[in-house]
Amino acid sequence: MKPIWIVDDDESIRWVLEKALARENLATRSFSSARDALQALQTESPQVLVSDIRMPGPSGLELLQTVKAEHPAIPVIIITAFSDLDSAVSAFQGGAFEYLAKPFDVDKAVELIRRALEESLREADVEQAAAEATEILGQAPAMQDVFRAIGRLSQSNVTVLITGESGTGKELVARALHKHSPRAAQPFVALNTAAIPKDLLESELFGHERGAFTGAQTMRRGRFEQAEGGTLFLDEIGDMPFDLQTRLLRVLSDGHFYRVGGHQSMKANVRVIAATHQNLEHRVREGLFREDLYHRLNVIRLRLPSLRERREDITILARHFLTQSARQLGVEAKRLSPQAMQFLSQLELPGNVRQLENLCNWITVMAPGQTVEVKDLPQDLVEERAIGEPLPSSPSMTAAAMSAAPKSDGDGASAEHGETPAGAEKNQWIALLEAEAAQMLSADRPEVMDVLGRQFEAALIKVALKHTHGRKNDAAVRLGIGRNTITRKIQELSIGGVAED
Fold it and tell me: Are 25 and 64 a contacting pair, CB within 8 Å?
């Protein structure tokens, strides 16, 4: 780990920070001016930089600007006076991690430096992982199985069928198989069979001779010829028209094909990798996919897990995509707060890795500030997640429900479930809810879901409003729902005591 740099013309401040960080077993290097630090920065760099703003010669803000231009991943903590708030604002606009106001508490300063240090080490881990895994990122066991399969297939020319939901990275895996194969120096050609009109797909695959059909004014080489000696990736193979499946089967069987309108047999030296999000077995049973072609393609099958099956990878993927997006736009990469990262890790993300990448692009462009909180994420995601959250107990449960709830024995444990007092208290609201629902269902009341749902929503919003002294926007943030949502619910549920924000 690199040392922490302290830049300050005040020797006493340098000394205090050096001693405090030494007690934490953290290496430091001190500079009495920004000029000295800038000179050292030409040959080395710190893990974290702590700098005063006002010093003789170049200011701390000028140092900050240079560091962020040349080493954007280094967290910079700016030291400023209480009266110098304009400088603090400028520091944040310049990309500072945080600022310390003089006079500062040494313990709090060390704690802040430690947070910056952890952030720096996390960013370094992400950059290293991205450099080591140039094609695909993933630490989950399911992805490790995929990596092992790619390794085993690296010296093989066998046909591979890649399955998985849309957005899981099937083409990335196909490219990795090609890159690590003996054919790596030859072309990799990809074709989405679902994106080409049926009338043109045959020509796209096999090419055509001049005059083969109206508009065919010149001879055209198809994808099989373009991929000669290399790899042909056929995406969404399950959508290939049935009659073309026969021609593809012929190529896979004996390696020969004809251009459209041609009479000369062409020899194909191509490795075929196919992919689909569909269940090919079902399509075979429905008569939509040739069984013999299915068996030709299904020599080696690689199934890519959905993002829901590898949630532990969301963190590294999100950081990678934020860094990648920032690099493309020429801006500093944004950071997700721990709460925002946890929120993302709990989303269903039906679009898988592709959806997460698009979300990170949105964050880079649209989210305010460098550290992104849950409230800064797209509102539809926040509201959608809030709707699916389990609701806590409602104070409006009836006395009948209370009496119907499981009783506890003399020691406070649930007689029915044998739970400890703490566990029984924690799950009491569930028992009350079940009892209330059972009573309403026994009475043949058809509006059970609507009545209980409204009671729970009203109870939640009332408690949040009480907690925020009636400020609905603050209450919405606390509940994890949108401002429009809480306004609508307050009106629908006739909740009073709301302050104007």
Answer: no
d(CA 32, CA 15): 11
pLDDT < 70: residue spans in the chain? 82-94, 122-135, 384-429, 442-446, 497-501
Instruction: Give the model's pLDDT for residue 404.
Output: 43
By three-state DSSP, how is residue 76 classified? strand
pLDDT tens, residue by residue, 202-259: 888 999 888 888 777 778 888 999 899 999 999 999 999 998 999 999 999 989 999 9
Tokens 């107990």 — which residue? 393
End-to-end alpha-carbon separation of the chain, Å? 47
Which of these, 138, 153, 257, lies nearest to 207 by C-alpha position? 257
Instruction: At 220, give phi and psi (nearest 5°).
Output: -130, 130
What's the pLDDT score for residue 293?
94
CA dist 142 and 137 (Å) reads: 12
Residues 381, 367 contacting (CB under 8 angstroms) = no
Residue pointed to by tokens 């013999």: 292
Nearest to 225 by CA among 178, 171, 264: 264
For residue 458, give every residue at least 6 positions away whose Cβ sits within 8 Å of its Cβ, in sequence order, or none: 394, 396, 493, 495
Query: Pick from 120, 137, 207, 122: which is nearest to 176 by CA?
Result: 137
Cα atoms found within 13 Å of the Cα of residue 203, Cβ hemisphere only = 18
d(CA 84, CA 76): 18
The helix/strand/coil state of 7 is: strand
CA distances from 66 to 63, 348, 390 (A): 5, 41, 48
Which pLDDT score is estimated for 19? 92
Query: How many angstroms separate the CA atoms of 65 and 98, rounded?
Result: 14
Cβ within 8 Å of residue 152, ≥6 positions away = none
Q: What is the structure's pLDDT at 270?
A: 94
- Give me the amino acid identity at 173: V
Q: Sign of the C-alpha dihedral, residues 458, 464, 465, 466? A: positive
